[in-house]
Fold:
Amino acid sequence: MTRVDEVSIPEKVANYVIEGDRVRLRASRCPTCGSVFHPPRTICPTDGAGPLEEILLGNKGTVYTFTVVRQSTPEFKTPYVLVYVDFPEQVRVLMPYDGEEPPSIGSQVDIVMGLGPKQEEGELASVPHARS
Ligand SMILES: [Zn+2]
Structure:
């Protein structure tokens, strides 16, 4: 089994920063209207302002809702849970959820690293997950 800390992610493509056992997602904030985006954007789609301020989201959020995925492509072992996480920075992000049972709506989750789908033969990528 591949351990999370054995997987290397090219720094330029990672939309997150690993801090110990937690993860902070990269985002951008519009200096004009204050809208926050993940993944980061260069121009605000609401008012066209730019460049946007680069920010890091906190490593905790609140479950807005979730779904249990029971059918997927072969590289994803089912069932698995996807959650929409609301961050205090006023942005909502969809991500996988680590847990035996689905989370409760409104519960707080930590953002951590998890194993993602199979990338190439035998290679796994890490992606941020939510965990209760
Ligand atoms: Zn804006």
